[in-house]
Amino acid sequence: MWRKSVPVAYILWFFLGILGVHQFYLRRNHHAFFLWATLGGIAGIGWLRDLFYIPTYVAAANESEEYMSELNELKSKKKVPDQGVCRWAASVALGYIFAILMYAVLWSDHLNERYVNTIIVLAHTFGALGVYIPNNEGHKAVSLGWCILGAYATLPLTIMYGEDYLFYGPLVSSSVASYKMYWKNEQSTQGFCIRALYVLAISIIYLGLLSTAIYYNATITTKGETVPLREAVQNFFNSKAWKETKETLSQLYNYYTHHGWRALWEEFLTAFDPQGEAHAYEVLGLNKSVTLKELKATYKSLALKYHPDKEKQEAKKKEMADKFMEIQKAYDILLKLKKERTQKQEL
C-alpha cells in the first residue's frame, strides 16, 4: 500500500479541497463526500479546519508507529471513543440535508395523511443515513441501526407538527451515535477503484435527490410572475427556441455523418465568426465572391457616403462617425484576410 505524503495532501487540499479530494487521497471516503456535498464542509468551514489536521490524517492513513501507539493507549483508557464536536455537527448537518431532500422529493399537496406519514418516516430514515456517514471514518464507527433508532425517536414530533421538526431527527440521531460509537480494529484497505466507485455511487444518489428536489420545488420569477421551475422547463421544451436548437443540432449531426469531425469543427468555427469575416461582409453589403477591386470600390463609396464631416448636426454627426468606423473596421478585416489568402495561394 502506497504511503501518503503530507505535501501532496496539502497541495490537494489547497487546489481541490472544497471537493474533498485530499480526504479521498487519505482514504477517508466519507469525509471526502461530506466536504463536497456541503460545499467544503458547510460553506468552507470543514475545508479550513483540515488545514490543521492534515498531518494527523496522514499519520493515521500510514498507521505510523507513533500514531498507532497513541491510538492504542487511547483505546485502553476509553472503551467508547469521543465523537467530537466537529463530527457531531457534521453528522447533524448532513443528516438534516438528507432528510429535507427526501421530504422535498416525495412531498405532494395531493397526498393523503397516510402517505404523508410514510414520507416523514422515509425522510427520517434517510436523515439517519446522513448521520451515519460522517460518524464512520478512520478508526471510529457506529451502527446504522442506532442512527435510525435515534432518528425514529422524534417521529411523533414531526408527524404531529410537520416538516419544520425534521431537524430534531438528525439532532437526536447524532447524539445517540455519540454514545454508541466503537473502535474499529483497522481502517479500510480497499483499492482506489472500489473506493472511487463507492463515492461515485453515493454522490449520484445525492445529486439525483438534490436535482429532483430543485426541479419539483424551485420557482423562477419573470415579469413579476412566479412560475414553478418544472413548468418553466416543460414550457421551454415546447418553445420555438428549443425547436430551433434541436433543428440546428440535427443539421450538425447530419453534416458530421457526411463530412467528418474536421469539417464539422471548421463549420462550427465559421458559425461563430471568430475573425469577424461574416459580419464584415454584412456591414459592407457584400458576399464572399467579391473581388479585391470590388471590395475597395465599395469601401470608397460607403466611406464617402458616411463620412462624418458631411453632417452638420452634432447628434447625427456622432451616428455617422460610428457608422464610418464600423465600415473602416470591416474593410480592414476583409482586406487583411484577402491579402493573406492570396499570399498562401502564390506559395
Describe this structure in words.
It is a single chain. This protein has 347 residues and is mainly alpha-helical. It has 17 helices and four strands. It has helices at residues 6-16, 21-25, 29-37, 39-43, 45-62, 65-77, 85-106, 113-135, 144-152, 155-161, 168-179, 192-217, 229-237, 240-272, 277-284, 292-305, 314-346; strands at 140-141, 182-183, 219-222, 225-228. A hairpin with a 2-residue loop joins strand 3 (219-222) and strand 4. Helix 7 packs antiparallel against helix 8 (113-135) and helix 7 (85-106) runs antiparallel to helix 11. It starts with 5 loop residues before the first helix and ends with a helix.
Strand fraction: under 5%
Q: Describe the main β-sheet briefly.
A: 2 strands, antiparallel
Task: Kindly provide the radius of gyration, computed on alpha-carbon positions and rounded to a whole number of angstroms.
Answer: 32 Å
Portion in helices? over 70%
Element string (H = helix, E = strand): HHHHHHHHEHHHEHEEHHHHH
Number of strands: 4
Enumerate how many helices there are, as a single number: 17
Strand order of the largest sheet: 1-2
Structural class: mainly alpha
Mean pLDDT score: 90
In whole angstroms, the N-to-C terminal distance is 60 Å
- Poorly predicted regions are none
Principal-axis shape equals: elongated
Main traits of this protein?
elongated; two-stranded antiparallel ribbon; 4 strands; about 350 residues; 17 helices; about 75% helix; mainly alpha
